[in-house]
Amino acid sequence: MKIIVQKYGGTSVGTTERIQNVAKHIIETKQKGYGVVVTVSAMGHATDHLIKLAKEINPNPSRRELDMLLATGEQTSIALLAMAIEALGEKAISLTGYQCGIETDEFYSKARINAIHTERLREELGQDKIVIVAGFQGSTPHGDITTLGRGGSDTTAVALAVALSAELCEIYTDVYGIYSSDPRKVPGAKLMSSISYDEILEMAKLGAGVMHPRSVELARKNNMPLTVRSAFDYSVAGTKIVEVNPMEKAQVRGVTLDEHIVRISVPNVPDRPGIAYKLFSSLVGLNVSLDMILQNLNHDGLNDISFTVPDEDLDRIIPTVEAFIDEVGASPLLIKSDVAKLSIIGTGITSDVKIASGLFGKIYELGINIEMISTSEIKISCIIDQDQAQRALQEVHRYFELNGTTVHAEEQGA
Ligand code: ADP
Ligand code: ASP
Ligand code: MG
User: What's the predicted TM-score (pTM) here?
Assistant: First the structure.
């Protein structure tokens, strides 16, 4: 049986009417002869609402209990979607992550999928049912519920597609596909008909919330064909994620802004071999995404070491960094949270120095100071002040001539 996996995001299942529309589209897919496995997010802003409730009760809830709570959001939407499909006369069954064999590690709130035991899924598909799986969740080998991190339903979808050797994985969302920048922040952003795994992976890691980075990593590793398209207008093909960008010329393809980062500086660290190792090895095991590490020589044999981390990782690492400071006798930690990371992305862009100089020139022209820079073959990122960041995003997008014909996001019912 040819299998297709579809994922519908929170806005796409945000009301009962939308759930009914999604149910119709799923049935149409089944009628084309596919075995259909669907994963969905929690309805609308349900996850944000649950987090707010938790914080009212306990400002620092344990991650295990938070996962227990957040997983209920997806449990609501899978049951409603299965009911909507049944109401239209098709067979469907909803399964939680645990029921469908999604086994993860024990890193609550940021768990990774270790395996999907597909027996139950195949059994239900074998009975001609449409299988609806709760996105964003799994369970540990002990049977405790975990979640995969915000936006993690995309990863559930790709993991299911890989485990079932599906023909295709379709991500349905509240915009028409992947754009050159967030169409809600940059009104002229252009819809792309295709983008390479590497480019969208980099964009996702650098703040393009349209895809969970791990979903792209998993699809790339397993050559899983992936498309991103609208849940409100099925006539638009959306964006195909492909192996390579067919264009030879290095070209900026996307501009992203990540406002959810903080800059941490440890001033006056003794300048001796092994110090960076000591600091960063102490963070191993905390599951932090480090970025933009910068060391600058001060004076009298002392350095400043700065790096950026996602906001959500900050609380987790502070005690460890403070212990390091005590141990080596550095100055107190400096934390700057009103920063943002502006990045340009495109295969091979650092091989053309005109691109880097154009970016820095544009930011200079806007009167904005660049605090840190990092590059890879495929991206250039700058840390700048947050209050200038939106303007910089739009201007840099325009500078690289990325503006195109866009159907505005609001038209898609978001
Ligand atoms: P879903 O609930 O469907 O997963 P998300 O909110 O997680 O939806 O992702 C879709 C949103 O991603 C869009 O509404 C858009 O504002 C945002 N976004 C950010 N960058 C991009 C981009 N480059 N292309 C498309 N959408 C983007
Ligand atoms: N509901 C979860 C979130 O809001 C997961 C997802 O939507 O992918 O982050
Ligand atoms: Mg999402």
Answer: 0.92
